[in-house]
Amino acid sequence: MRDGRLLVVELDGVGPHGTPDALFRDRARQNAITATGRVDLLRFTARDVLRGDVVAPAVAAHLARA
Q: pTM of the entire structure?
C-alpha cells in the first residue's frame, strides 16, 4: 500500500477463536496493531474464505480506496 501502510488480513475460526480468552487476546492484538497508525486490518471468517467471493473483492476494494 502507499504511504508505507501495511494491509493485514486475519482469518478467524471457531476453534482457535471460540473462547472468551481468545476473543480478548484477539481484540487486544488488533487494537495494538491498528494503534500504530500504519496498518489496516481486515478480518474474515473461515466461511468467508470457503465461499470464494468474499475475501478477494474486499481486499481489492480496500486497496482501490487506499
A: 0.80
